[in-house]
Design a protein that fits this description.
Blueprint: H1 3-17, H2 42-48, H3 51-62, E1 67-68, E2 75-76, H4 84-99
Helix pairs in contact: 1-4, 3-4
Length: 110
């Protein structure tokens, strides 16, 4: 993993850990985001044949309501809660980026 990407991940982790208390901190069993105890869906792995591709799919599903600003092409994501279920996304990206650096995971950090 390149140093600039590692710095971006670290900055994103910091931001996710400091989301305002006005957002819900759910019990783990009620969390919207699946990243605290994430594992690859084996059925999707058979279909896609790429762990990074499955992770990318799961990120797309989790953050499906993201908005692309047409004038700048920036992607904005609205978070619905805070806490370990969301913060775990960084661990997931790190894990699968290290083993599959050519998969499309960097776009979720940039």
């Amino acid at each position: 993993m390149s140093e600039p990407f590692r710095v971006q991940l670290s900055a994103l982790r910091h931001l996710l850990q400091h989301i305002p208390d006005s957002l819900t901190l759910p019990q783990q069993s009620e969390a919207v985001y699946p990243f605290a105890h994430y594992s690859i869906d084996q059925d999707w792995l058979e279909k896609i044949e790429s762990e990074g591709g499955v992770v990318n799919r799961d990120l797309e599903l989790a953050f499906a309501d993201r908005i692309v600003q047409k004038d700048t092409l920036e992607r904005l994501i609205t978070f619905h809660e805070r806490g370990p279920s969301l913060e775990g996304v960084i661990d997931v990206i790190e894990k699968y980026w290290d083993s599959h650096p050519n998969d499309p995971l960097a776009k979720w950090v940039e």
